[in-house]
């Protein structure tokens, strides 16, 4: 008997299973190598580009011009705090952290980040998934999301972005830095290894619009190996 036709109506994000994703990440050691899927050498150029991107945003900001550090940011899906330690803590007074895998945040606050935690530079640590995290309104100058949003379904992402929009202070930014699907049919792609979805640029733009966010700057990460997914960073602000 012939196989039934593939169900092309099923969306890739329907395969997301949070328990499986957490099991995958919990089985990984708390290292930069595992945060970057075996490409630890990319961390430096990634962090430098992120710092340049934020500096550019601040140069065109009336509310957050260059000069003193930003008051408060949050590193979302932070892992072991690679972004917190290598970038955010250098340009922000207090950095909160959201990360569901406790083993990773334990490494951050007891390891390299111990001194920063002791002086309050690393603020609150929330050990929950972003789909459950409810930030306080009017709190953050910067909400940084990197290489973690593929763990949320489209519907969860829209709700999450709406909460983040409310959590921004006036003139603040939500930043999204993620791999982009290069699927020839422009579909999102489900990754069975870490149980996440790699979205297309078009999908991200549709989701941003749905939750009332506008793109105020975006660029493609330069200097990464061609065989990897392209990485794009977006800065978002409430639309109106
Ligand atoms: C590829 S690592 C990136 C870590 C960090 N953002 C960085 O750039 O170094 C993905 C992280 O997402 C976390 N994660 C998995 N499911 C998540 C969820 N539902 N909400 C937030 N983070 C999640 C994993 O535990 C892991 O720390």
UniProtKB/TrEMBL annotation:
Major enzyme class: transferase
GO biological process: cytoplasmic translation; methylation
CC annotations in GO: cytosol
The reaction(s) this protein catalyses: N-terminal L-prolyl-L-prolyl-L-lysyl-[protein] + 2 S-adenosyl-L-methionine = N-terminal N,N-dimethyl-L-prolyl-L-prolyl-L-lysyl-[protein] + 2 S-adenosyl-L-homocysteine + 2 H(+); N-terminal L-seryl-L-prolyl-L-lysyl-[protein] + 3 S-adenosyl-L-methionine = N-terminal N,N,N-trimethyl-L-seryl-L-prolyl-L-lysyl-[protein] + 3 S-adenosyl-L-homocysteine + 3 H(+); N-terminal L-alanyl-L-prolyl-L-lysyl-[protein] + 3 S-adenosyl-L-methionine = N-terminal N,N,N-trimethyl-L-alanyl-L-prolyl-L-lysyl-[protein] + 3 S-adenosyl-L-homocysteine + 3 H(+)
Domain of life: Eukaryota
GO molecular function terms listed in the Swiss-Prot or TrEMBL record: N-terminal protein N-methyltransferase activity
Enzyme Commission number: 2.1.1.244
Keywords: Methyltransferase, S-adenosyl-L-methionine, Transferase
Binding residue positions for S-adenosyl-L-methionine: 77, 82, 146
Family as reported in the entry's similarity comment: Belongs to the methyltransferase superfamily. NTM1 family.
Protein name: Alpha N-terminal protein methyltransferase 1
């Amino acid at each position: 008997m012939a196989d039934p036709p593939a169900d092309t109506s099923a969306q890739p994000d329907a395969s997301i299973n949070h328990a499986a994703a957490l099991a995958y990440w919990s089985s990984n050691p708390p290292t930069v190598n595992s945060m970057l899927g075996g490409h630890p050498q990319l961390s430096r150029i990634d962090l430098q580009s992120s710092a340049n991107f934020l500096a550019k945003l601040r140069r065109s900001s009336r509310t957050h011009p260059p000069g003193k550090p930003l008051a408060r940011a949050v590193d979302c899906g932070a892992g072991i705090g690679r972004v917190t330690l290598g970038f955010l803590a250098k340009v922000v007074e207090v950095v909160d952290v959201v990360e569901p895998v406790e083993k990773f945040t334990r490494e951050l606050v007891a390891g390299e980040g111990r001194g920063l935690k002791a002086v309050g530079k690393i603020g609150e640590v929330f050990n929950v998934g972003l789909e459950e995290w409810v930030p306080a309104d009017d709190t953050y100058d910067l909400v940084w999301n990197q290489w973690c949003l593929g763990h949320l379904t489209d519907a969860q992402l829209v709700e999450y972005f709406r909460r983040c929009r409310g959590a921004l202070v006036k003139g603040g930014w939500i930043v999204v830095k993620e791999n982009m699907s290069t699927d020839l049919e422009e579909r999102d792609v489900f990754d069975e290894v870490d149980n996440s979805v790699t979205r297309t640029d078009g999908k991200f733009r549709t989701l941003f619009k749905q939750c009332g966010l506008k793109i105020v700057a975006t660029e493609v990460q330069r200097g990464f190996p061609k065989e990897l997914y392209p990485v794009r960073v977006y800065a978002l602000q409430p639309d109106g």
